[in-house]
Amino acid sequence: MLITNIKGLVGVHSKETLSLRGSELNQLPILENAWLLIEDGLIKDFGLMSNLNTQYANLNTINAEGRFVFPSWCDSHTHLIFAAPREEEFALKIAGKTYEEIAAAGGGILNSASKLLQASEDELFESASIRLSDMIKQGTGAVEIKSGYGLTVESELKMLRIIQRLKAAFPIPIKATLLAAHAYPTEYKNNHQAYIDLIINALLPKVAAESLADYIDVFCEKGFFSNKETAQILEAGAKYGLKPKIHANQLSSTGAVQIGLAHQAVSVDHLEETDTDVLQALGQSPTIATLLPSCSFYINIPFANAKGLLSHNAIVALASDYNPGSAPSGNMNFVVSLACIKLKMTPEQAVNAATLNGSAAMQLSNEVGSIAIGKKANLFITRPMTSLAYLPYSFGQSQVETVILNGEIYHGPI
Ligand SMILES: N=CN[C@@H](CCC(=O)O)C(=O)O
Ligand SMILES: [Zn+2]
């Protein structure tokens, strides 16, 4: 397949560039008036229209005149498997209840867990497939999915097996994360260690035996998992080769980031509450700072200090956090808009954070996340756009016109 007359071929980073930190995010290389050649599902070559090789004339060609071609969004933080939405909490939030108050009253994660317990694997697979297909049509071409609404051995395994089914059914890279430490089930409210023991002794060996997860995650937060409890779980996960990606500093700043860094987390995610120590530590670390502005927007908590992180030289990624409680949207176009509007990232920084750095947060940046020869041809063609900035500017709307995955036009839903 050949794509010609591309107004802007976005994200033509060198193949060796696997992530961007600090001021490196300012540069989003764009080739103007370009062509792109795809072969065997991979990016084979690209260049300027003035240098288009005539031997490509007979190829299946898409004329992208006036349009931009982007590498697909790489969404490195989602909870897209859930049994039911939580609109009842939406009403409570409008009436003034906070996320913590709703959770403490038995809403929140525990509410989702009790619903998921009742749902069959097939039902969950079907509803997750619809969500994932919607995300793909909005430009997402690689995704991480967490468990965490199971909270029993069987229910967590059920979630992870659904992720394996999604992997087999969808033409995009999918990473799986074990998030059994998302909340304490009610019966363990006064015996935290017993739940941790269950994770470590009963769940982890099964997850490892079936190779069901790539990462281990903990919601390290006041009222959820303490720093000490988090460390214990991450250390147990490491014994099975699971690297950490943790929920840190969402509602308070209590040292979660430092726990993540001490355990060589691939990423620490959320970071709505950060102080200078955290910015400095992340600026000197290979751990990626993954920001989730849709969550801040939806539950009315502070937006992360993206500018502070960038000025301290951190690797900043953007993800959707798609989940029924704090971010019921998997739309990465909106995430990129929010990053510009609320985090004051430039369109170039935001696109880099949602593509290459998102892929790095899933350890997939040698496969996806930029336009480089040999990478997967996972990309999208926009509608005609006046400039790059038009995409985040036109917030709440999708400029994605054609999705190409592994070199083929995606028509979905599956
Ligand atoms: N904070 C923890 N987990 C999710 C929310 C989960 C829920 O409310 O169901 C998050 O990333 O925001
Ligand atoms: Zn999350």
Automatic annotation (TrEMBL):
N-formimidoyl-L-glutamate binds at residues 149, 323, 325. GO terms for molecular function: imidazolonepropionase activity. The keyword Lyase does not apply. 4-imidazolone-5-propanoate binds at residues 86, 149, 182, 250, 326. Pfam families: Amidohydro_1 (PF01979). Its EC number is 3.5.2.7. Residues 68-409 form the Amidohydrolase-related domain. It is found in: Cytoplasm. The keyword Nucleus does not apply. It catalyses: 4-imidazolone-5-propanoate + H2O = N-formimidoyl-L-glutamate. Pathway: Amino-acid degradation; L-histidine degradation into L-glutamate; N-formimidoyl-L-glutamate from L-histidine: step 3/3. Its cofactor is Zn(2+); Fe(3+). Zn(2+) binds at residues 77, 79, 247, 321. Fe(3+) binds at residues 77, 79, 247, 321. Keywords: Cytoplasm, Histidine metabolism, Hydrolase, Iron, Metal-binding, Zinc. It is an enzyme of class 3 (hydrolase). Binds 1 zinc or iron ion per subunit. It comes from the Bacteria. Belongs to the metallo-dependent hydrolases superfamily. HutI family. NCBIfam families: hutI. Catalyzes the hydrolytic cleavage of the carbon-nitrogen bond in imidazolone-5-propanoate to yield N-formimidoyl-L-glutamate. It is the third step in the universal histidine degradation pathway. This is Imidazolonepropionase. It comes from Pedobacter helvus.
